[in-house]
């Protein structure tokens, strides 16, 4: 697998940011994600749905993974997420052998992406200012919802 | 938190086994789980739904977790599962601070339960013969489905 081009990573992040913004507009936790195939095709996209569906199991990454449906292999796929993946979503990436993770930002929350890198996943952290601003504003405004979403 | 009584662990496992059997009868992956509260009340139960819903994100543990709905805290809760939790489901337990995991068996598959024990989760492995037999028979009969379910 070739290392991902920065312009492609940012273009893919835009899909995840759209999902996060839609979640914010719905009153939800503003985290979005998208799963891209080895050929660059979008396989699935989604957002955190804790508030919208009353469903604590739907984080952005698991929503994108579900939307992609059943796949025989995740070799060469890329999970793009606006925020560093929590242990739950990092476990998803490791278990299914997703090859690469593009992280919008890891400033407001530092999840399991170092652990993924140690286990052979290509991890790209973009430190995107819009992702940082969106989460920072959300955490300041709805701290109880944010802490609920990460089990703290 | 007191260590769990063996008779209680086995009684709770029976709920997870019922879910696994129901999944088997539906043509699905026969893994079941249940989440119990600190007071011993059943919070949620569920089974793997890869085949039934075409949904790769619904493992038994995530199904039970979803069925329990939004919870402010998982302190004192117990996740009971017929099979050693994969990395995805182990990540769920760690992220949300689920206090205890009761594992029906870890003979046919050894997931992340040692990692959870290292991170302070009370782990009880029961080596239940019915759980072993159910998975062994399933893996022999549907190896491609089993490998798909764990991303191998």
From TrEMBL, chains A, B:
<feature type="domain" description="CMP/dCMP-type deaminase">
    <location>
        <begin position="7"/>
        <end position="123"/>
    </location>
</feature>
<dbReference type="Pfam" id="PF00383">
    <property type="entry name" value="dCMP_cyt_deam_1"/>
</dbReference>
<dbReference type="InterPro" id="IPR016193">
    <property type="entry name" value="Cytidine_deaminase-like"/>
</dbReference>
<dbReference type="InterPro" id="IPR002125">
    <property type="entry name" value="CMP_dCMP_dom"/>
</dbReference>
<protein>
    <submittedName>
        <fullName>Nucleoside deaminase</fullName>
    </submittedName>
</protein>
């Amino acid at each position: 697998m070739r290392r991902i081009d920065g312009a492609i990573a940012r273009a893919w992040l835009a899909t995840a940011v759209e999902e996060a913004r839609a979640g914010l507009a719905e009153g939800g936790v503003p985290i979005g994600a998208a799963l891209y195939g080895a050929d660059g095709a979008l396989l699935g996209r989604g957002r955190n749905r804790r508030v919208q569906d009353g469903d604590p199991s739907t984080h952005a990454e698991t929503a994108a993974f579900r939307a992609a449906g059943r796949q025989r292999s995740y070799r060469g796929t890329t999970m793009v997420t606006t925020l560093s993946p929590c242990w739950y979503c990092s476990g998803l990436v490791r278990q299914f052998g997703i090859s690469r993770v593009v992280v919008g930002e890891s400033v407001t929350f530092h999840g399991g992406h170092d652990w993924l890198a140690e286990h052979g996943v290509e991890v790209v952290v973009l430190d995107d200012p819009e992702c940082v601003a969106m989460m920072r504003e959300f955490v300041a405004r709805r701290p109880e919802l944010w802490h609920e979403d990460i089990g703290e």
